[in-house]
Amino acid sequence: MKKSSNSICFMLFLMPLFFFGANGAKVDIMDTEPWPLKMESNLSFDIASKCEMLVFIEVFNSYDSLSESVLTQRVALKSVNTESVAQWKEATKTRILLNFNQLSDAALKELIPISKNSNWNALSLATLEQQFPSTFNAWYVATKLFYEDYVKEQIRLAALFPKITSEIIPFSDIEIQGHNFTDKNFLLTFDDGPTLGNGNTDKLIQVLDTYSLSGMFFVLGDNFEKRLKASSKQALQELYGENRLLSHGKVHKAHQKYAEWQASIDDTNTLIQNVFPTENKNDLLYFRPPYGQRNTDMVAYFTDKKSKIILWNIDSRDWSAKLNVQQVAQREIKLMLLWRKGILLFHDIHSKVQEVLPIVHEYFKDTEIIWMKPRDF
C-alpha cells in the first residue's frame, strides 16, 4: 500500500459509524470523528486518553456494582468465577490509576479537570454527561456504548478463567500481556500465517515496509511448512526482513487441553529455527497459544526453557465479520488511548489489517508513541 492512500483511508475512517449497545440497540453516529479534537501532539494524546479512561471508569463501575446473579446473566454464562473476576477488576483499577499518573498537568486541567494523584473514588465522581461540551455528545454516547461491550467482553473472559484460559489473566511473569511496557510503547503482532505466496501475509509486510514498521509474526507450523515447500528459505528470509518469526503452534487448536501441545510447540520451533536460526538453536522460541489458551504445565515448560509466552492486551478482533475496517481501526485507537501501552493483536491471514494499520499510524503520527522493534524485545 502506498503512502498516497493515507488520505483515502483516513477519510474512510470518518464515514458513518455504527455502535451496538449492551441491549443490542444500534446508534448511528453520522459524520463525527470518534474524538472531536485533533490528535496533533503529546498533549492531545493525553487529553483524549484521560477522557477515554473516565468513560471506561463510568461503565466499569456500573458492572462493579452488579450482584453475582445479575452479572452471570449479563455475561450470558451459567456461572462465573468470582475470584478471577475480582482479580481482573483489581488489576484493571491499578492499571487505570497508573495511567492517570502518566498524564501531564496540562492534560489533567483540560475539558474535565482532574486533580493530580486522584484515587478511584475521586475519578468516579466526574459527571461526564453534564461536564462534556455539547460538541462531545456524539463521541460520549458512542464511547459509552463501546465500553459497555468491551467491559462485558473482558469480564466474560475473566469469569471463565481458568476453566477456559485466555489473555485476560497471566499465570506467571513469563507471560507477557503488554500492560507493563513503558508508557506509549506499542508492539505489533500478527497471528495464523503465513498465507501462500502473494497472499495477505505478503501484502501486509508491504504495508509495514511502507511505514517503516515491523512486528512479531506468530506462525502456524503447518502453514509455515506449506509456504516453505512452495518457496525457499532465502525467499522467506527476504519476505519477513526485520520482522520476527515466532511460534503459534503447529495447528490452530486450543492448546489448554490438547494432549499433543508439547509436540506442537517443539515441531514448530524446529521448523522456524531451520529457516530463522537463533544464536543457540536449542532456544525455545517465544510462543503465543491459539486463543490465548494454555495450562500450567505449558507455563512450567516455558519457564524451564527460559522462554516466554506472548499474550496481548489490545485485541483488534479483525477476524470478526461484524466489524468493518473503520470499526476495527476505531477499536484499536480507543484501546491504545485507554491502556496507553501494550501488544496489539492482528491476523495477517485476513485483509483488514492492511487498511487498519495505515489509519492507526496516520492518526497517531503527530504524537510521540513508539512502535516497538520486535527484535529489541
UniProtKB/TrEMBL annotation:
Residues 1-21 form the signal peptide. GO terms for molecular function: hydrolase activity, acting on carbon-nitrogen (but not peptide) bonds; metal ion binding. One of its GO terms (cellular component) is membrane. Keywords: Hydrolase, Metal-binding, Signal. Gene3D superfamilies: Glycoside hydrolase/deacetylase. SUPFAM superfamilies: Glycoside hydrolase/deacetylase. This is Polysaccharide deacetylase. Residues 184-377 form the NodB homology domain. Pfam families: Polysacc_deac_1. GO terms for biological process: carbohydrate metabolic process. InterPro entries: Glyco_hydro/deAcase_b/a-brl (IPR011330), NODB_dom (IPR002509), Polysacc_deacetylase_ArnD (IPR050248). The keyword Signal applies. It comes from the Bacteria.
